[in-house]
Specification:
The protein has about 280 residues and is of the alpha/beta class. Helices cover about 40% and strands about 25% of the residues. Strands 1, 2, 3, 4, 5, 6, 7 and 8 form an 8-stranded mixed beta sheet that branches. Helix 4 links the parallel strand 1 and strand 2. The longest helix is centred in the N-terminal third of the chain and has 16 residues, at about 25-40.
Length: about 280
């Protein structure tokens, strides 16, 4: 019997990673909200429409989408992380409970109702599929003919200091880290190659595929708030736990690196993303 799809990612996002993101929900939303709003504009949503939010996390994007489609519309937020979905469900206001609902499911294999949605959206939730072609084919069949897909994903790590600066600052105090054996394996930067993204979406049956580069400075708060996020989200936190004797040196180095980018509205670092759009035929 074969293993369920995305079993490693399901385990990852229901353990420490999901719990960490849930606990830092407000700061992560502050950081990623501008990029979510940017890609939402591509959908040009109208009242009464139905939207699928893939990898909805703690629910901020689903609630924003629900506001766009109004009380006659419907948004279904889908995620594999129970800790984040618990936060999402608590955020639904009583008056809007019918507009946004949340589903603990894997978008790669969930049997969505055919042609039920006008649009599918994702803010950094689609780079983690074990079989991305199968996943996007499943999402496509959930869209009505002419239904729109829009998502944002990271470009290369070197282009996004918001993702790499803390680790670079900490590196002199930690054991050397080998580059990933497969840069296309499920993970934040799996969709950095635009040609790969085009092939995946075309093989999944989408048309009118467009990728637009987007650069924007983003941040999660003031210096100490950003430092906490940097030390807890991603691999740096694991390395600190494995090398506790270097903790003070790493914290000092990361704080100094972040402080150089602090302004009146907090620490802001450059992000480099793809805004990806496509249509279901």
């Amino acid at each position: 019997m074969s293993e369920p799809a995305n079993i490693a990612q399901i385990a990852y996002w229901n353990a420490g990673a999901g719990e960490t993101w849930a606990s830092l929900q407000e700061r992560m939303d502050n950081q990623l909200a501008p990029l979510g709003r940017r890609v939402m504009r591509e959908l040009d949503l109208a009242p009464g429409q139905r939207v699928l939010d893939i990898g909805c996390g703690a629910g901020q994007t689903s609630l924003q989408l629900a506001e766009a489609v109004g009380p006659t519309g419907q948004v279904t937020g889908v995620d594999i992380s129970r800790p984040m979905l618990e936060v999402a469900r608590r955020r639904v206001p009583g008056a809007g409970a019918g507009k946004a609902t949340f589903l603990e499911a894997d978008a790669q294999t969930r049997p969505f109702e055919t042609a039920a949605y006008d649009a599918a959206f994702s803010r950094f939730g689609v780079m983690f599929f074990s079989d991305p072609v199968a996943a996007f084919a499943n999402i496509r069949q959930a869209l009505r003919p002419g239904g729109r897909l829009a998502f944002v994903c990271w470009r290369s790590p070197a282009e996004s200091p918001v993702m790499t600066l803390p680790m670079a600052a900490a590196a002199p105090y930690l054991p050397p880290q080998a580059p990933p054996a497969d840069p296309t394996a499920p993970g934040p930067f799996a969709f950095a190659d635009p040609q790969r993204v085009r092939r995946i979406l075309a093989d999944a049956g989408f048309t009118d595929i467009e990728l637009t580069p987007h650069n924007e400075k983003i941040g999660s708060g003031d210096l100490e708030q950003t430092l906490e996020v940097s030390l807890r989200v991603g691999p740096l936190g694991n390395l600190l736990r494995e090398n506790p004797d270097q903790r003070d040196a790493v914290i000092g180095a990361v704080r100094e690196a972040l402080a150089a980018h602090e302004g009146p509205d907090g620490v802001k670092l450059e992000s480099a993303t793809w805004i990806v759009t496509a249509k279901a035929p």
